[in-house]
Structure formats: C-alpha cells, structure tokens
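name: query_chain
kind: protein
chains: 1
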Amino acid sequence: MIMGIMKKTLFLPASALLIIGAGIFAWRHSHDNVGANSLVLYGNVDIRQVQLAFKGSERIETMLAFEGDKVEKGQLLATLDTSRFRENVELRNAELSAQQEVVKRLVSGSRIEEIDKASADYDAAKIDAGNAERNAERLKRLASRHFVSEQQADNATAAAKAASARMNAAGEVLRLARKGPRREDIDAAKSVLEADKAALALASLDLADASLHAPSNGVIEDRILEPGDMASSGKPVYTLALTNPVWVRAYVSEHDLGKLKLGMAAEVSTDSYPGKSYRGWVGYISPSAEFTPKSVETPELRTSLSYQVRIFVCNSENELRLGMPATASISLLDPIKAAPCRTF
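structure:
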C-alpha cells in the first residue's frame, strides 16, 4: 500500500514536468517564429513643427488663432497694421502712371501743332536774319562814305550774325520736331517705367505679406505674440505642428539593419489606444550610426551604436501626438508593400 502511494507521488511530478517542458518548447518555438517573421521597434511619435513669422516689420493688428486650433492650408492667422504699406502702394502706382505718360509722349513723337510752331519760329528767325544782313550791308556802304560811324556799321554786322545764329537754332528745333525723340531717350524712359513697375510689385508684395497664412494643415501649438507687439522676420508669431507627415522615430541595431528596406509595411500601436493599430511603412533609414538615446528602450545596451529609422504612419483621425510612445511591428515575410495613405 505504501509502495503504491509512493509510485503515484513520483508519477505526478514527472507528468507535470513533461507538460511544463512541452509548453516551454512551444512558447520558444512560437517566439522564434515571430522573431523570424517580424521586427519590433520601440520609439516615439514625431512630427514637423513650423515657426510662422511675418516677412515685414510692423505692429501686429489682429491674431485670429489660439493654441489647439486646427488650421487648414491658406487660412488667415494674423495681420499687421497695413496703413504704411497701402500708402506706399498708392505712391508707387502714381509714379508708374506718370512715367507711362512720359513713355507714351516720347513714343508718339512730336504733335503736328509742335511742328507747325517750330516751322513758324524758323520762318520768323529767317526773316529777321535777312533783314539784319541787309541792314549790315547798307551801313557798311554808308560808313565807307562817312555818312555813319564805323561803330554803327560794326553793331549792324554783329546783329546780323546773331540773327543768323537764331535762325540756325530755330532750324535745328524744327528738324528735331519733325524727327521726333531720340531712340536713346525712349529706351531710357522705358527703363524707368520698368523700374517703377518693379517698385509697385514690391510694394504690393509688402502689403500682401502683412497677412500671415497657414502654409499647411496643422494644429497651433504656441501663440507667441499678441496684437500690439512689433513683428519682424526674426520673431515667430505661432508654432504650427503639422498633421502630415507623422512618423515613429525608432532605432535599430546593426544586427537587424540588414532586415530593413524602404517601403516595408508596418503596423504601429500605442498605449493610448489599446487594440488599435495604424498602417505605416519604413520611410527613412539613417545612413550613419549614432548612440541610441537613453529614452529609447532597446534590447541592446544603451551605449551601443544603432541607426535611426522613421516609420511613417497613417494618422487620418489625428490621434497620434508628438512624443507619444509607440510600437512598430515590421513584417519581414512581405517586405515591400506600399501603404495606402502614402500621399506626400
């Protein structure tokens, strides 16, 4: 009786050990298969941030967005005081209009009335020159007979020469009036016109830059300045967190680096949404090694060299946040598979 009891006692632990051993073998076999079929990486959600600033320097008039606001590409976020910019646009526009008239006048040439006036002035100067010449000749003859003084004759001769010079000048004015403006003057006026157009375009651009628009879809992370603050190109007004693209920044050891290729499909999960996964793909593999940051958990020692990997993730519901811990499982059986949300 005692021997039977002892046999049963010895038999039960042996059976239990057999069952436990079989379980351990099955677990290790399954674990080895998972390790061979997929690669699990641990990291944090990362996004791009944009510092939004005005191009011009002026006092802020309105701020239309607050922290946490979702904004769309092209949405108006803030404006500057535009009084100075509008006045500059009006000034440049007036200068442009005036120069356009100058070019138009030069290209059109002399009016018929201007030519007629120049012709009449030349005729009058020609008559005066003829009279002065005849008067000088008459006084010369009288002076030779001592009826007038030599001084009177010399004065008449000088007057005749002056009248002849005025006739020649009037003739040149008539010739230029008929010929029209010089080509060089027209080209110079056109160059000034182009400069005025550029000045107006620049003034209009300064006016347009007085409005700050969202460059892409995103969420306002920081509202840095307020109405009344002096803005400039070096002072950010908002910090915008872009909603696309979103990726998981993880690190892979050199041992597993050869298993990864760009475009590999991945499944990403977070502790914030248990049981939910997000489709993704390997979008970046660092070309150089670095020390793994201490905030990242890896099976290797923290001081070992590893390579940064970015797993781009489909985040259509905007559930993933900057810095959120995430787990990426990369399938090694079907290594190349395009993600359906890869649209950027």
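note: The longest strand covers residues 238-253.
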